[in-house]
Amino acid sequence: MKKLLGLISLTLFMSGCSDHSANPEEVLVSAASSLTEVMKEMEQQFQEVEPNIELTFNYGSSSKLRSQIEQGAPADLFLSASEQDMELLKSQQLINTDSIEPFAENQLVLASLEEFSATANFKEIVLNTEKKIAIGEPDSVPLGAYSKKALENDNLWNSLSNRLIYAKDARQVVTYVESGNAELGIIYSSDAVISREINGTLEVPGQTKPIIYPGAVIADSENQPAATAFWEFVTSSEGQAILKEYGFMPVAGETP
């Protein structure tokens, strides 16, 4: 009888182990499109330490992702390129306030397939040409709002308005430049670092504040422990090193 009970216990134990392996915890991450490439690397390294947590990513502009969360779309973690969108979710108590943390910084650059000369001047380049300039849609894409603000600060917005091409998110701006649909584009410096086609970059003047990426766990997530585990990985020294490798800057005062 003891042998029979022992066999039953062992069978149940093995069955439990099998079920756990076959049904990993799933975490749905809503992430800004500018994080697309770095999150592929982040996912690969995270699953080496947490193989039973399966990550799925939903990429888009931060404002679009925020709107989806407001409408009840499933999400466990929000990684935003916009502090404003995070604040809007916070005001509606849709995220865990205690989990809000900035995890990266970025900046704007003018991008081109051709190299700029060492003496290139941003204002001269954008004013003394008929070339199209791709930017994010200012009313719905954080990259576009940052770009418009920088151009307004330099009194360039009205002068360039007839030559601007608008994109639905940061990745589409990069695609416009890489495909030649626009000769110039204002993109994040992190996207310029990982692009194989973009050879010329020039810092965009008129940027008065750093572009900060905040993240937080969604309040009604049913996978909070798993979402928190990945969020802690992103903000860890290992996660910060991956972000730096992909062109992101550490938040001021933090060490990658």
UniProtKB/TrEMBL annotation:
SUPFAM superfamilies associated with the record: Periplasmic binding protein-like II (SSF53850)
Gene Ontology MF term list: metal ion binding; molybdate ion binding; tungstate binding
Top-level division of the source organism's lineage: Bacteria
Residues binding molybdate: 34, 62, 188
Keyword vocabulary terms for this entry: Metal-binding, Molybdenum, Signal
A UniProt-annotated Pfam family: SBP_bac_11
GO biological process, one term: molybdate ion transport
Gene3D superfamilies registered for this protein in UniProt: Periplasmic binding protein-like II
The family this protein is said to belong to: Belongs to the bacterial solute-binding protein ModA family.
Name by which UniProt lists this protein: Molybdate ABC transporter substrate-binding protein
Naturally occurring in which organism (per UniProt): Planococcus donghaensis
Lineage: Bacteria, Bacillati, Bacillota, Bacilli, Bacillales
